[in-house]
Amino acid sequence: MEKNNTRIISIDVGLATTGWAIIQKSAQFSNKMELIEYGPIITEAGLEMGDRLEQIFTRLSELIDEFEPIEMAIESLFFFKNQK
């Protein structure tokens, strides 16, 4: 894959389903980003946590090798009490 200095991998963390997307700076508009590809990493419910994490690690490693992003964005988890 051709190297791009503006390519980013974005990860939506989850043990059962981890979402990912590859975005990069638009070739047409310098202040816009364009979506290159996206998808889920789905792990089996009956697997041990270590095996699930290994599947996620392996697939993310493949995506990084394929798309060669220079930055990564990871969604942080948000917890709160007393939801109304």
Question: What brief labels describe this structure?
Answer:
84 residues, single chain, alpha+beta, four-stranded mixed β-sheet, 4 strands
Q: What's a quick, concise take on this entry?
A:
The protein is 23% helix and 33% strand. The chain is α+β, with helices and mostly antiparallel strands and 84 residues long.
The count of helical stretches stands at: 1
Strand tally, please? 4
Q: What general outline do the C-alpha atoms trace? A: globular
Order of neighbouring strands in the sheet with most strands: 3-2-1-4
Instruction: State the low-pLDDT regions, or none.
Output: none
- Main beta-sheet annotation: 4 strands, mixed
Termini, distance in Å? 48 Å
Strand fraction: 25-35%
Rg, please? Answer: 15 Å
Report the oligomer.
Answer: single chain
Fraction of residues in H or I helices: 10-25%
Helices and strands, in order, run as EEEHE
Look at the helices and sheets and give the structural class: alpha+beta
Mean pLDDT over the residues: 88
Question: What does this protein look like?
Answer:
The chain is 23% helix and 33% strand. A four-stranded mixed sheet has the order 3-2-1-4, covered by helices on one side. The mean pLDDT is 88. The protein is an alpha+beta fold and 84 residues long.
Break the fold down into its secondary structure elements and pairings.
Layout: E1 8-12, E2 17-25, E3 33-42, H1 49-67, E4 71-74
Parallel strand pairs: 1-4
Antiparallel strand pairs: 1-2, 2-3
